[in-house]
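User: Structure please.
Assistant: Input sequence and predicted structure:
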Amino acid sequence: MKPTIATNRNHNGYEVESRQRDSPTIVSPAVDLEPEITPIPEPEKPAPPRKKSIALILLGLGIGAITASAFGYHYWQYTSSHQATDNAIVTGHIHQISSKIVGTVAEVLVKDNQLVQPGQLLVKLDPSDYQNKVQQAQAALSSARLQAKAAQANIALAAQTTNGKTTQAQGDVSTAQAAIVTAQATVQEALAGIPAAQAVVQEAIAGISVARSQVAQANANLARAKSDFDRYNTLAQQGAVARQQLDTARAAYDVAQAQQSSANQGVQQAQARLAAAKVGVAKAQSQLAQAQAGITTAQAKLAASRGGLQQATASGQQTAVNRSQYAAAQSEIDRSQVALKDAQLQLSYLNITAPSTGRIGKKTAEVGNRIQIGAPLMVVVDNDYWVVANFKETQLAKMKARQPVEVKLDAIPSHVFRGYVDSISPASGAQFSLLPPDNATGNFTKIVQRIPVKIVLDPQSIKGYDSRIAPGMSAEVTVEIK
């Protein structure tokens, strides 16, 4: 059976084809099986609103242009009235805490990062040694007072001397005079020795310069020998040079190393000679001081001998001698009182206190440590902060003191701190470096320099953030220059 194709109409009035299998022909009355269906006309679609869309697009472009122009104008206005940099750090006073005396740490009363107040006790030193010195000074003062009392009592006493005492007193005078002459000669000798010792020091200093020059030359020779050796070694591995040339380069490299070592030893020897020469100068100065002290002692002995001679010559002179002894005892009393005050002052240095309000940092003091004078124990970081902003020199044309400033810290990005320009550095940061640039050779390349500007923060602005701000923090600074 062959399939038949039947044409039907759908509900919209369009004709559609359908395939059916052939079936046996069945004779039926002639009936119209396809009723006539009237097609429904399809509604017309409205035309797209092209003119309205174009108008909206033009309106959006106009609004965008106006917005961009306003933003550009405000941005230009802002940049023309502000200067900004992110090359800035927080700075503050950092007080180095050290001891004025030598001692042993007995107690440490603070911890790292602790807040302290001015005068607060930080470290206590062992008082034993200095208490002993105070007691010794008190004992010396008491002894001097007793001697003064004895001398005062002897003023009323007078004793006659014999011829033997007179002769002995004259001999003492002669001996003291001879001692003075000897001491003066020693002083002259010591004075002559000091220039010689100083000349040795200058010679040693010159030797150090020569030795350092030899070190520099040896370093240059070593660098060149090493370069040659490395090159020949590479060429030898590639088979481009003979083994003998490599050995020669290795030998030259070894010789350069030996020369460098010898030059370094030469510097050390020159420094040792300088130290020895300085010791010689100190020794000569010490000999001079000893000789001068010898003159003083000899003069004192001469004065005492003359006093004894006068005492031996006439008993009436004894009173004057006793009065001299009393005056000497009074001088000893004064000296002992000064020594006692000094010992008491040293004792007061046992308590090390905070110089200002701040927080403790870099604490190295521990109980039992033996510390020297000036040895760092800790630091007190003051709560007085400011910001040093390194502006380009091209940004300083309109910058001056008292201009308002906004500061943002990387550690506290959510808060804007207020302040003002305090002052502008008298020189660029490069000029304050260890090795300032020198373009005297003519190879000059212009580089925009950075000038430090001190920014003082408003106390009300940092209120509540004091404990979170620390020297060394990075900052972004914007200065309003109009």
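Confidence is low (pLDDT under 50) at residues 1-37, 158-163.
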